[in-house]
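hiii, so i know i said id send this last week but things got crazy w the move. better late than never?? heres the sequnce for the chain we talked about at the cafe, plus the structure i predicted for it. fair warning i was half asleep when i ran it
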Amino acid sequence: MSVMIKVDNLKKIYGSGFEALKGVSIEIKKGEIIALLGPNGAGKTTLISTICGITVPSSGSVLVGGYDIAKDYRHTREMIGLVPQEIALEPFEAVISTVRFSRGLFGKPRNDAYIEKILRQLSLWDKKDAKIRELSGGMKRRVLIAKALSHEPQVLFLDEPTAGVDVELRKDMWDVVSDLKASGVTIILTTHYIEEAEEIADRIGVINHGEILLVQEKETLMQQLGQKQLRIDLSEPVHSVPDALAQYGLDLAPDGASLLYTYDATGERTGITTLLADLQSAGLVMTDIQTQQSSLEDIFVGLVKEKQ
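okay and structure toks below
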């Protein structure tokens, strides 16, 4: 699979001295969906704005489809569709006129059939003649997505596209995203809804403080999600894990009243049966056991905490 976006040692330092991007490097493949996760202020929007040519980088380079965003700005911008966080639309314009105008801005010939297809996919066709100011917040978000798709981009950026919108819009949008991926469009998504990243992304990236902490295939991350933790509550607190149980790599809770055992839930043997037998042999009495499986959110939170 060829590389659609290549970011190399990208930095952005504002006049105040704030370093929003600290040497970010990442390659995004043609036709993949990559989700960028990160807390507020992590650099997600700055990275997207820079790739789209909206923000000027301090140093580093970005290639889109093999073209430099600085030297070939017009060409690269034509390849990109952007759905921003902020809703900025002309309130007195009709929906269909707004979307047609966006297509015209990129020099594309009029194509009413294509515009109708987009509006129908986003459940906007029955609102095509409505003024923007008459729409709900969720409907306005749909118009932003339609505008971003109007010129048939090869790359689509979705910057927190479902923040604060209804479940129906999310479903409509992910259906559109699936169709776009099938047609070869590269999609970069930022989201606070980690379950969305889990659901549709091919790869997951984690960014914090202007640095990429992780970029991995979703399947690789899911293997980590196979890790489960068994919490064993004891009838009497202990000061340390008995030597007889050292082979299990147990962690002792801060209060000494519980032992934590991490194991691979996907493996043939978990080791739990022998652990419980050895626990009894070591003279420890348990009062309760609980299992907990790590989630993508746990991994994300752990990575962010490590870098703080």
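btw Residues 88-151 form one domain. thought thatd interest u
miss u guys!!
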